[in-house]
Specification:
7% of the residues lie in helices and 27% in strands. The longest helix is centred in the C-terminal third of the chain and has 5 residues, at 50-54. The strands form two sheets. A two-stranded antiparallel sheet has the order 1-2. It has a two-stranded antiparallel sheet with strand order 3-4. The protein is elongated, with a radius of gyration of 23 Å. It is mainly beta and 75 residues long. Strand 3 and strand 4 form a beta hairpin. The chain has one domain.
Length: 75
């Protein structure tokens, strides 16, 4: 399918025919060789590697000394 690339402000935009496009929202674009890969961003997904990037090497380093030991209580 042939479409148009056009200038929108200081950026370029790609016109995606309605029958091919998702609902309006965020999209991710990636250059793969001489191709562009455009896919909608699913808000329920976390970025790849997100949880590994925030995991603490030493969980004890998260506790403040004055905080004391962790304990569970019945509510």
């Amino acid at each position: 399918m042939l479409t148009k690339i056009f200038k929108s402000g200081n950026s370029l935009a790609v016109r995606i025919p309605r029958e091919m496009g998702p609902e309006e929202g965020a999209a991710e674009i990636e250059r793969v060789g001489d191709h562009w890969l455009i896919r909608p961003v699913k808000s329920a997904e976390w970025p790849p590697g997100f949880f590994e990037s925030i995991r603490l090497a030493d969980p004890d380093s998260f506790t403040r000394p004055e905080q004391g030991e962790h304990r569970e209580i019945e509510l």
